[in-house]
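Cont'd.
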Amino acid sequence: MPLTGQSFIGSQRGALGGAPIQALNPATGQRLDPVYSSVSSAEVDRAVQLAAKAFPTYSATSGKAKGAFLRRIADGLDGIQPQLAERAHLETALPMPRLLGEVSRTTGQLRLFAAVVEEGSWVEARIDPALPERKPLARPGLRSMLRPLGPVAVFGASNFPLAFSAAGGDTASALAAGCPVIVKAHSAHPGTSELVATVIQQAVAAAGLPEGVFSLLFGSGVETGAALVRHPLVQAVTFTGSLGAGRTLMDMAAARPRPIPCFTEMSSGNPVFILPGALRAGSEALAQGLFSSFTLGAGQFCTKPGIVLLTERPETARFLEKLCELVAQAQPFTLLTPGIARDYVRASSHRATQATLAAQAPAAGSAPACPANAQLFSTTLDEFLRLPALSEEIFGPDTLLVRCQTPGEFLRAAEALDGHLTATLLGSEEDLAAHWELIALLEQKAGRLIFNGFPTGVEVSHAMVHGGPYPATADSRFTSVGTRSIYRFARPVCFQGFPDALVPVELQAANPLGILRLIDGVPSREPLPE
Amino acid sequence: MPLTGQSFIGSQRGALGGAPIQALNPATGQRLDPVYSSVSSAEVDRAVQLAAKAFPTYSATSGKAKGAFLRRIADGLDGIQPQLAERAHLETALPMPRLLGEVSRTTGQLRLFAAVVEEGSWVEARIDPALPERKPLARPGLRSMLRPLGPVAVFGASNFPLAFSAAGGDTASALAAGCPVIVKAHSAHPGTSELVATVIQQAVAAAGLPEGVFSLLFGSGVETGAALVRHPLVQAVTFTGSLGAGRTLMDMAAARPRPIPCFTEMSSGNPVFILPGALRAGSEALAQGLFSSFTLGAGQFCTKPGIVLLTERPETARFLEKLCELVAQAQPFTLLTPGIARDYVRASSHRATQATLAAQAPAAGSAPACPANAQLFSTTLDEFLRLPALSEEIFGPDTLLVRCQTPGEFLRAAEALDGHLTATLLGSEEDLAAHWELIALLEQKAGRLIFNGFPTGVEVSHAMVHGGPYPATADSRFTSVGTRSIYRFARPVCFQGFPDALVPVELQAANPLGILRLIDGVPSREPLPE
């Protein structure tokens, strides 16, 4: 599959000659061919217009047909798994096993959403049958269900070139909901994005769907991204990235003449509370687990544990000794882009002025273009509470230890926390039971509470919540991972007094799909008397 | 129950002496005692602080206990139904039968939410059991459910002094979700609000709940309202009112350091499409039905049909003749406030410069202080498309006929429509089937599609959707009426790897509440092996 450097505008390819975008191998600094052409504003408009034109057809496409389409994309990606992982490896320097796994995660995700829409109950059909004899007034028949929002603009993320990118969770869930998707490809992995988009474009054609169901645009966030968010026909936005960029998009979406939902996943310190039992159970293993988690993917995970709270206990010294040893001996990491590498150095230098540098890996030699060395900072609770910058996420292989005097101080720390994707408690079950107040508080601060695990590693499943209060995300009522994420892209529509034949099949009396519905508030898969 | 003029700050009453607010009898112009004192900013802060303090306890209160609390409020309101309706009648000039009915609607609504939380399945519990043997990685046990957002600020609405006010749908659904509520009482019916708040304050005490679960504040929208929306501890806002005020609140909520959801229900023309069969079936009855709908509650319903699209047919003349006759003979109406009455006159005068005044009721004599006469305007489709102001809602007893040449022109009209709460189709089933393209288009423009009914009269039930795309509401993904409205106030929280005894009862293996849950994606009420 040769790469061309052109955007995907429905079934067409974009023009060449726009502002150039070229990926770089973060390990070597070498520029990677081809050069990508940024789209023109006319091309952005055309992609959105095509999406809007495709919407009536695609939104009325059956769950079975949408499922087949998603499976076709998954099959296509599986078919080029090695090529995809290799290109992604060149563009991100992430290790091949991780990237091969990320292809599987991505296709598994597509198939999970396929299963959800094939089964069909996700639309939350509700029927309140007519009560013509009710006094003082008859009740008309009411039937409602979730219907898709319309064209969705998806911003690819730098840190998951597959699972949060062109065919990632946002695209999969929006397509599953019945929304056409326009992806703004991340400029750090355009080749990976082109490979994926080629598969999707072919799947759209093979499924006989309108071309506007999928477009993928190369361009800058400032121009192409803003044009998408401001386009009157775009109905929702998804984004995973920095707090600054995410908030800019949120503000832009809120300031539109017609504001639209903007799902940004931004910044999370993912606090970890080390309760006494965790240290007693094995402080070396604990140090190893924590180190592995905050350096996984070179610390470029949304769920990296960046704040670790612990108390002084007999075992603390051994834990710290081991952790410092692991950090000091860590091999150099390669970050995703020169910009991220620069930011890591800058943020680390600033942190060193506010906290103690407890351990540091040797700096990289001459090899990688985007180097980073693991770092461990340490501070006191008082300092942590006094200096807001210590709560800010640093994107890269570092973490901050916050030394508390007593477990009671954990409550003070938790009260001061902003919103996070996760909050973790490590310890014995007795510890956990004793810290019920802390749990109740953390529930208000995070979308996922973890006991005796590490926050990195996000299951794609039904019960997963990958979200959390601001600034972790724009809107804590939604998740961007797992099947609940489809609900970002749908709205309820009610049909009152309609003849049975003219409502969507999900709402018809016979319930031909056999989905679970709420009949007068009671869940049932039974047909209704017409 | 004597009225005091003081706000409700948790279990206390507010100070007297703030800026005065006094209700007025819209029928007579008489000022109504007592004078109400606006709260101070310290009182606003205290109410919100109390709500935040109450949140951990109230959010952990069982569905059964929340249900008993809501039923207690309903019983209390039923106990003072005549007194409530009488005071509301003085403050709004709405007819007594309507207000007596509105008390019942309000208490029915509270009991409906009680039933929802007593049953408990609304929390959408999801469990993905641990798979310790899974390769390559074990899956931790994941359990998630909806948990309440936190303190909610509710703005009372002018047009439903009970059902959309202190104990209205917003309060009922937020309390049901587990959120403390701070109501900003509407200044047009402070006495009604005080009576209702007295009942709620007593119910909070009788239920043994923390006092901060409910407060009600008298004050201006600009000061008290803004202070609530900007308060860092407020987690969501609900509002029903004008587009201008609603958008201001939306912008304020979006501009906070931590943006919060702001549910505003604002402006809707509720277009009605008269298909040929409707005229054939009886043009006089149709005229009567339409007239009754747009003048119901003096035209002060969110769902008033303000835009009526019809084609030239043999029966059209008779329909118009009858409609004009009804309008010309209509008795004068009394609007809710002098401001609304002024706005009605101003908006009608402006409309008369853009559309033809087809019929008009005689102006009121000297009696009411807030008079309005029914009006019928008429225009062509081309004019309607040319002049955006013709799409704007006029709050009061008027409607606008939009004359189309052919049913095909309905599509052009529908394409140009903004978001609305409802869209109505009147006609035969054959008409409806022939207009499938129109239905598909209207689905994108409204939250509720009505066939052969009128949009006024909103059922409080499970399948109801009272929402719609902007500017009808801030967020088309939610409804403000019906049991779906509880989802405005909740967010999913996931517990990973937690011991069974330490997760909320809804997520425990034994499923002691017997609620419907999603186990590995499959709905079930069965217990799980622990």
